[in-house]
Design goal:
Elements lengths: L1 H25 L27 H4 L4 E7 L4 H17 L3 E7 L4 H11 L9 E2 L6 H6 L6 H7 L9 H6 L1 E2 L2 E2 L7 H4 L1
Parallel strand pairs: 1-2, 1-3
Antiparallel strand pairs: 4-5
């Protein structure tokens, strides 16, 4: 019973974060790649804007491309099921998930190769958390905190150790669906 509750709660949180990330990624210009810097925090410590209202301005379904890799068996089936359920739950965003290889290393190599031409990059990428710093340093990540604050989401609802794991320079960046290792 407790496990079912935790799974529903986790899926609800994941859905909220994914929806905010989808809106931001799909309806805004991506950060430029290769800048060599983390996303610039404005004067007074201001985060970049997160256009949560962008879907309201879209004239049709927004196409969002997700790259993932290294998933097999039931884990891959779960990813495909989450994508299908997300697409069936609404008509504003159409998420397409593309398997990019057998490992996180392979997908990251493909991502790095595509970085020279930003229009080839996916809107969302599922990587090992060890790649987060490289993505931040490359200026390729919109801070999750910008979207969470824009949506009025209380960051303290995230387990402190998980929040700490994905915070760089006092800014929370996108985390991962599975945070069991950082929590332990």
């Amino acid at each position: 019973m407790r496990q079912a509750f935790l799974t529903r709660r986790r899926l609800g949180l994941i859905s909220a974060v994914v929806a905010a990330a989808l809106a931001a990624a799909a309806c805004s210009e991506p950060p430029t790649s290769g800048s060599g810097n983390a996303v610039e925090i404005g004067a007074g410590g201001q985060l970049p804007d997160c256009p949560l209202d962008a879907l309201d301005k879209a004239t049709g379904p927004v196409e969002v491309n997700l790259w993932y890799g290294g998933l097999v068996g039931s884990t891959k089936a779960t990813m495909e099921d989450i994508v299908d359920r997300f697409n069936a739950s609404q008509d504003q965003v159409r998420l397409t998930a593309n398997d990019q290889g057998a490992s996180y290393d392979e997908i990251f190599r493909k991502y790095e190769s595509a970085s020279a031409t930003p229009e080839q990059l996916p809107d969302i990428i599922y990587l090992a958390d060890t790649e987060l710093q490289a993505m931040i340093d490359g200026g390729q990540v919109l801070p999750a905190q910008a979207c969470m604050e824009a949506a009025g989401y209380d960051l303290t609802d995230i387990e402190p150790v998980a929040r700490s794991k994905y915070t760089v320079g006092d800014v929370l960046y996108p985390g991962y669906m599975n945070v069991s290792t950082p929590v332990l």
